[in-house]
Amino acid sequence: PMGGKWMNNTPAVQRPDLAIISGRSLTLRVQVFNEGNSPMDKLQVNYTLKSLEGTVVTLTGHTVINSSKPLPVGGSNVVEFVIDDIPAMGSITLWSLKVSVMTTAGSSVEEKKSNLPNNYFSTNIWMIPNHADPAVLSLTVDPLKPTVDQGVNLTVKVANLGPTSFTEDLKMLVDGSAVAINPNRSAENRKVIPVTLAPGERMNLTLTHAFDSEKVYTVRVRLEVTTPQLNTTNDYVETEIYVSPIPGAEFVILGVDIPEEAYVGEETLITITIRNEGSEGAEDVSVNVSYDNIKIVERAETFPPGETRTIEVMWIPRTVGHFSIIVTVNGDRAIEEQNYDNNVYYTDPDRGLYPELNVREREDVGGGGEEVPVFIIAGVVTASVAAGIGIFFLLRR
Asked: Other C-beta atoms within 10 Å of 131: how many?
């Protein structure tokens, strides 16, 4: 029922059970019931089935309930229509259905045509073809920004939107040419994956491909529909993938190890772990360690491709305070271009990496205000190089 109570003598229509397949006859059962407070007689039930897409097709019909006695209050009657002239559709289309009831009591034409309030039901429905309907629904790419020769996973969702099963081949075309996607088959059949789907079934398939050049590729995943009557409106999806070059040298700071606290005039060890993730080595790579924009050490290093290296820097703080340690590996790029990148490592607590370094005085350090010379060795230790820089400071106590 549409719900609620209607006006006096107002018939209502219950929603029919719909199963619309084009090219087949449709049985439409309509239950009419009286929710008013007095009996009803001479009722006419009408239907209109109309296409909303493509060529407009309108199917109409009506019947009169000629019961031997009026429809009593709270009573109901079932009317059945058999619609035989539904055309065969090549694809899924949207249709509208309206079912209404009116009274034919009285003799005037106006009275017979007048629909009573709230006496109709209408909805939009899908008309599905009377055969399998292969469809490629979506395609996702991971990673979104691959590099040359990197394996890319392309996940495609396929479906059967029709009432019968199908078996068709799935292909992937890169710039118009089919590529191998099925390593489990013989060489001549590796460019297709057979797909069998029952009515309403959906399936996810993951295809892997590596692109060999830096460019924008057009990728199309398609069901090769060979059965003549099957719909091919939704048989493929297409996307573009930009493949970037492999970086020549790409530096990542894996970690910076600093103590929880340090003391004025005492050596403080800072350990840095760096990896070159690029495909090429690099010379004169600048490794810079500073605090509050004051340089502790800057050193030129040579990094072979794929090498992970630990660098130790010794620092003797001169004043008490909280210092933000910053490590940068700028390679062949300006430091300004690498802020918040993997090549810049902050100890700022707001960025959640490491706390600031707390430098304080030791209580047992002697002295009475004299100038104490302090000689600092800031060493950078590598796999093949051990070097030191001597820096002379006067620390006033």
From this structure: 18
The values of phi and psi at residue 35, to 5°, are -105, 10
Let me know: does 169 contact 192? Beta carbons within 8 Å.
yes
Torsion of CA 181, 187, 189, 191, to 10 degrees: 30
Q: What is the DSSP string of 120-183?
A: EEEEEEEEB-SS--EEEEEEEEESSS-BTT-EEEEEEEEEE-SSS-EEEEEEEEETTEE----T
Distance CA 113, CA 369 (A): 112
Nearest-angstrom CA–CA distance, 206 and 200:
20
Say whether the peptide bond before residue 117 is cis (omega within 30 degrees of 0). Answer: no
Under-70 pLDDT residues of the chain: 1-19, 66-67, 104-118, 330-355, 364-397
CA distance 131 to 152: 35
List, for residues 227-256, the tens digit of each pLDDT value: 777 777 788 999 999 998 877 777 788 878
The token pair that represents 153 in the structure block: 């996973």
Q: Are 219 and 174 in contact (CB under 8 A)?
A: yes
Question: Positive or negative CA dihedral for 293, 299, 305, 310?
Answer: negative
For residue 217, the SS3 value is strand
Amino acid identity of 394?
Answer: L
Full-model pTM: 0.45
Helix (H) or strand (E) holding 221: strand 215-224
Closest CA to 49 of 127, 104, 112: 127
The 3-class SS string of 258-298 reads CCCEEECCCCEEEEEEEEECCCCCEEEEEEEEEECCEEEEE
| Among 172, 156, 239, 160, CA closest to 204 | 156
State the residue for tokens 């619309």: 20
Pair 181, 207: CB distance under 8 Å: yes
A 10 A CB-CB count for 229 gives 11
- The secondary element (H helix, E strand) that includes residue 307 is none
DSSP string, 35-54: -SSS-B-SEEEEEEEEE-SS
Domains present along the chain, CATH in parentheses: 11-127 (2.60.40.10), 134-243 (2.60.40.10), 251-396 (2.60.40.10)
The first and second tokens of residue 17, run together, are 């059970």
